[in-house]
């Protein structure tokens, strides 16, 4: 997808997804460019305590508006589930002396969150399309 097209579509899609996910109070800083890992379509870093996310989208890895919608819904679902990730930080501190248990719980939580995000992604995309139509 061309960078200019992605830069034009992404803010509208993000705003609409925020409304669908109840994330209107979050400030999302959008960057259209390369992600930190080669081949990654998008990544979000979260400052949970400030309800702020930094979202990077690589337009070179996205083929069309529907794929952009799917990628953005995935990343915003990470924001929606960020309470679990914040809880993980607290748990990590509480288990500082239990390295093996801490690592096991971290891996389990990451897998659980990622599976949940992927499962909810298609529902959110479908709801978006029903509400707003296909992104153009």
List keywords for this structure.
single chain; 136 residues; alpha+beta; Zincin-like; three-stranded mixed β-sheet; 4 helices; 3 strands; 13% strand
Commentary on this structure:
This protein is of the alpha+beta class and 136 residues long. It has a single domain (3-132), classed as Zincin-like. 60% of the residues lie in helices and 13% in strands. The protein has four helices and three strands. A hairpin with a 4-residue loop joins strand 2 and strand 3. It is elongated, with a radius of gyration of 16 Å. The N and C termini lie close together (12 Å). The mean pLDDT is 90.
- CATH class term: Alpha Beta
Spans of 5+ residues with little confidence (pLDDT < 50)?
Answer: none
Largest sheet: 3 strands, mixed
Stated plainly, the CATH topology is called Zincin-like
Domain module count: 1
Q: How large, in whole angstroms, is the Cα Rg?
A: 16 Å
User: At CATH's second level, what is the architecture?
Assistant: 2-Layer Sandwich
SSE string, helix = H, strand = E? HEEEHHH
Helix content percent band: 55-70%
Counting DSSP H or I runs of 4 or more residues, the number of helices is 4
Integer average pLDDT: 90
Q: Based on DSSP secondary structure assignment, what is the total number of beta strands?
A: 3
Euclidean distance between termini CA atoms:
12 Å
Structural class: alpha+beta
The spatial strand order of the largest sheet comes to: 1-3-2
Percentage beta strand: 5-15%
- The dominant shape is elongated
